[in-house]
Structure formats: C-alpha cells, structure tokens
C-alpha cells in the first residue's frame, strides 16, 4: 500500500489508462453480458451503498428485491414464486442443487445434467459432493431426452434442463424433462440464465418455466439480456418454503436467519434490474429481443454466403458456425468445446456491427 495517497488527478489518470486497456464493446461478439441500459446505471448509482445482506437496514431496497422476484415470477407464470437476487447463474445453480440435496437425503447423491450445461455445474457438484451424470446432446445440441431415463437411479436428487445454452443457444425439451421429473418425483432445475429474458419475448416461445408443473426452480440473469448492471442474477423456486432448507442462523443481523449464499449482497444492481424491466415493459423487451434475433438471422445468412455453415439453428440469439479460419483483426469471437465459432448478438451488437463484421469476413475470404 502507498505510504502517501495519490492526488485525485493522478489517480484517475491511472484508472483511465487501465480502463483504456479494456476491449471495446463495439467489437465484442463473444459476451453474454452487454452495455447496461442507462436507466439501470442511474438506478445503480442511487443505491450504491445498500446491502441486502442486512435487509432490515435497507427496507426500501429489500422491497425492490421482492418486486424483482415478483416481476420475474409473473413472467415465468408463477407470481407466487419464492426467490432472491443472486450474483448470477453460477450462484443460482449452486443454490438450486443445495436445495435438491437438502430435499432428498441419500448417501451418494447424483444429478443428471446435460452435456451442454454451463461449467458452473461442475463447480456446484465439486463443492456439494454430488456426482455429475452427463446426458449427451442430440444432433441439434439439445439434451437427448431418450437417454435421460437411463441415467436416473435411486441416488439421483435432481435433473437439470437448459433454456438457452451458453454455447449453442438451444432450449432443451423442458416439457419432457418436467414430465420425467414428475414421474420420478425429482427436483428439476432449469438454467435459463441467458434464455430466461429472451424466450418469454419470442413470438412462439417453447415451454420452459413454472407453467410446467414439474419445474422446481429457475435461474435467470438480468445482467445478460435484462441489460442490468453487474452483478444481477436471480434464483426462483416454485415453493417459497424451499429456500428455508438453506437457512442458517445470523444472530447479529436485522434478520435472524438467511438462506442466501453470499453475505454482503449489492442492492444497487437489483435496483438496476428492476428499473430496466419496469421502464421497458413487455413491449420494450419484445422489441429488444426481436432486434437481437433479427441480427442473429442476418449474421447466419451472411456467414453461410461466405462458406461458414451454421452448426445448429439456434432458439435464441447465439450463432455458431463450422469454421476453423481466423476472424478479422480486432473482432472478438469465441469457440465452443466442439471448436465451432460462437457469436452472441447482444443488445450492444447493432445491425451496423453485423454488417461491418460480415464485410470484414468477406474481405478476408477474398484476400
């Protein structure tokens, strides 16, 4: 630590230099996070010092968290859902498996998880002492439903379905998984961290939420397609009492028990998440999603013109291509585990960006 503090001008000159070393969103095509909406930023700044880890000190902010869960529950066809704001999908997925493990106590618990699941499930299973039983994907990169039943045994505590997979943008057949979960009396967690704020705004959304009786919990991230500030995730559960399975005593706080994973929890990003949903409304969110999907389809058509076939036809705004050639300089894309080029058409990815990327791709191909 410095013995003598820096002058403010010197300090912010240094910080500005470091910020300038970050990549610019104008060329980022690989991220599931986006530039936050201005109303999210404004709301975030209003609640910077609030801590939902001690909610009795910040009752107004705590009421915003309840409103956020209510809004999301309504969106997911169950306004009476329980839940809380998390740091994102990783925390939500960990907590869902904690609930499942607490509900069904067996000596050697396992969970049946899709091949296409997010890597956070590996973290969750390592932490909780749960064995992962992975079900392969079909040709469309959705969970092969025909192989789920064979993976279930007496020690299975939960099934997982993906609604908007991280790598391919696919939605599993959650209806079929929900039916299996009901038949086998199993907890079903739906990881909709990305798709949860895309699917409900599609013209013909596939079923994935609490409208299906077998769905037990849902993860969703407002800091992705909800355009909130970071970090803003949420875990919703069908029965609010499920969260009580995670309670621990917190004797010196304004609440005497807590079920959250983190202790200190920011209220600012919760306010930002709620602000965007209430400001945009359903009509506004439908317009954002429609724009992202239009850009996704344009990108796919353009890439195939240049000889980059799609790996799959995505359900949400994630495009993947069978391509081993480098991308044009300065553009940032990523690769799936199978080596496919991956591009996310987030709200910050404009139609002009897509056209420029395609133009640059064309120049590389013709060089």
Brief description of this entry?
By secondary structure, this protein is α/β, with parallel strands linked by helices.
Task: Walk me through the structure.
There is one protein chain. By secondary structure, this protein is an alpha/beta fold. The chain folds into two domains: about 20-35 and about 280-365, Aspartate Aminotransferase, domain 1, CATH 3.90.1150.10; about 40-275, Aspartate Aminotransferase, domain 2 (3-Layer(aba) Sandwich). Helix content is about 35%, strand content about 15%. The chain is built from nine helices and twelve strands. The chain has helices spanning about 10-20, 40-45, 60-75, 90-105, 120-130, 150, 175-185, 270-305, 350-365, and strands spanning about 80-85, 110-115, 130-135, 155-160, 185-190, 215-220, 235, 250, 255-260, 320, 335, 340-345. It has a seven-stranded mixed beta sheet, with helices on both faces. A three-stranded antiparallel beta sheet has the order 10-12-11, covered by helices on one side. α5 (about 120-130) links the parallel β2 (about 110-115) and β3. α3 (about 60-75) runs parallel beside α8, α4 runs parallel beside α5 and α8 (about 270-305) packs parallel to α9. The radius of gyration is 21 Å and the shape is globular. About 45% of the residues are buried.
CATH H-level superfamily title of the largest domain = Type I PLP-dependent aspartate aminotransferase-like (Major domain)
Chain-averaged pLDDT: 96
| Percent helix | 25-40%
**Name given to the CATH architecture of the largest domain:** 3-Layer(aba) Sandwich
Read across the widest sheet, the strand sequence of neighbours is 1-7-6-5-4-2-3
Roughly how many Å is the radius of gyration? 21 Å
Relative strand content: 5-15%
- What's the structural domain tally? 2
Please give the number of β-strands.
Answer: 12
User: What is the H-and-E element order?
Assistant: HHHEHEHEHEHEEEEEHEEEH
- CATH fold field value of the largest domain: Aspartate Aminotransferase, domain 2
Largest sheet: 7 strands, mixed
**What is the end-to-end distance?**
52 Å
Question: Are there runs of 5+ residues with pLDDT below 50, and where?
Answer: none
Helix/strand/pairing class, anyone? alpha/beta
Morphology call? globular
Supply the number of helical segments.
9
Per CATH, the class of the largest domain reads Alpha Beta
């Amino acid at each position: 630590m410095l013995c003598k503090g820096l002058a403010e001008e010197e300090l912010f000159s240094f910080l500005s230099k470091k910020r300038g070393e970050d990549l610019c969103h104008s060329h980022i095509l690989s991220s599931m996070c986006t530039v936050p909406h201005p109303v999210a930023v404004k709301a975030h700044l209003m609640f910077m010092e609030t801590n939902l880890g001690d909610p009795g000190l910040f009752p107004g902010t705590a009421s915003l968290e309840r409103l956020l869960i209510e809004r999301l529950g309504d969106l997911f066809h169950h306004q009476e859902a329980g839940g809380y704001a998390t740091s994102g999908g990783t925390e939500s997925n960990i907590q869902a498996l904690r609930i499942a493990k607490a509900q069904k106590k067996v000596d050697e618990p396992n969970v049946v998880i899709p091949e296409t699941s997010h890597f956070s499930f590996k973290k969750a299973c390592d932490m909780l002492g749960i064995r992962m039983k992975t079900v392969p994907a079909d040709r469309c990169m959705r969970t092969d439903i025909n192989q789920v039943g064979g993976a279930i045994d007496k020690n299975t505590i939960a099934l997982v379905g993906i609604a908007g997979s991280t790598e391919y943008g696919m939605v599993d057949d959650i209806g079929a998984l929900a039916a299996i979960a009901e038949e086998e009396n199993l907890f079903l967690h739906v990881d909709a961290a990305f798709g949860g704020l895309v699917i409900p705004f599609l013209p013909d959304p596939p079923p994935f939420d609490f409208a299906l009786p077998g769905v037990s919990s849902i993860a969703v991230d407002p800091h992705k397609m909800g355009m909130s500030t970071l970090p803003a995730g949420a875990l919703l559960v069908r029965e609010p009492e499920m969260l009580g399975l995670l309670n621990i005593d917190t004797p010196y706080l304004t609440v005497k028990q807590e079920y959250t994973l983190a202790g200190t929890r920011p209220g600012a990003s919760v306010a930002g998440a709620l602000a965007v949903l209430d400001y945009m409304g359903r009509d506004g969110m439908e317009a954002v999603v429609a724009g992202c999907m239009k850009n996704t389809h344009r990108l796919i058509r353009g890439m195939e013109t240049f000889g980059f076939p799609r790996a799959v036809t995505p359900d949400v705004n994630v495009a993947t291509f069978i391509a081993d050639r480098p991308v044009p300089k300065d553009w940032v894309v990523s690769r799936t585990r199978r080596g496919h080029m991956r591009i996310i058409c987030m709200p910050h990815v404009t139609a002009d960006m897509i056209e420029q990327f395609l133009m640059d791709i064309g120049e590389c191909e013709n060089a």
